[in-house]
Amino acid sequence: MELKKIDEYRWELPKTGDMRVPGIIYSSASMLKDIKQEEALKQVANVATLPGIIKASLAMPDMHWGYGFPIGGVAAFDWENGIISPGGVGYDINCGVRLSASSLVEKEVRPRLEDLINALYQNIPSGVGSTGFVKLSVAEEKKVLKEGSRWAVRHGFGEDSDIEH
Fold first, then answer.
1. What is the secondary structure of 99-111 as a DSSP string?
2. Going by C-beta distance under 8 Å and a sequence separation of 6 or more, which residues neighbour residue 30?
3. CA–CA gap between residue 15 and residue 13 (Å, rounded)
4. What is the DSSP string of 41-71?
């Protein structure tokens, strides 16, 4: 895939085929050599084909091949016509990014934003390590993998509506 140099650390992957927007790669010239060896550039192009994408499919300097999106890939999507992609929120490594539907509006949340962030941090397990409050045997881990959100709801880690979503 041919890249056009924008400046010292930005490169454009021009729109081709079904791409709705170009790709923008943030990288040094020396790092591009490794990037071009992987499938990550194809993934940047694939993200650029998704419905509702806005402006560009972006890839940060740490980009490498991922699941759908490249790791280090970023994209914004139109609220009404766009999509939500699990590959874009890091479902493969539990990076702690998730989507939650809410009836709250920004003017209600803004005054309590710090409290909300602290509560989310305290109540949502994320990151690396084995010091979380949920301890599972190997057999129970297999149940979680098989039953997913149904297991979580049954054990008090969610609500019935979570299963539907």
1. -------HHHHGG
2. none
3. 7
4. HHHHHHHTTSTTEEEEEEEEEEEE--SSSPE
CA dist list (Å): 118 to 10, 104, 112, 124, 153: 35, 17, 10, 10, 23
Tell me which amino acid residue 82 is: G
Rounded to an integer, what is the distance from CA 156 to the centroid of its chain?
A: 26
- What is this structure's pTM? 0.58
Closest C-alpha to 95, from 63, 131, 126: 126
Give me 147's structure tokens. 């039953």
Residues belonging to the chain: 165
Q: Which of 65, 102, 120 lies closest to 87, judged by CA?
A: 65
Residue spans per domain, the chain: 1-93
User: Could you report the per-residue pLDDT of 4-48, keeping only the tens digit for each?
Assistant: 999 999 999 999 999 999 999 999 988 888 787 778 899 999 999
How far is residue 134 from each of residues 58, 100, 129, measured CA to CA in Å?
A: 36, 21, 12
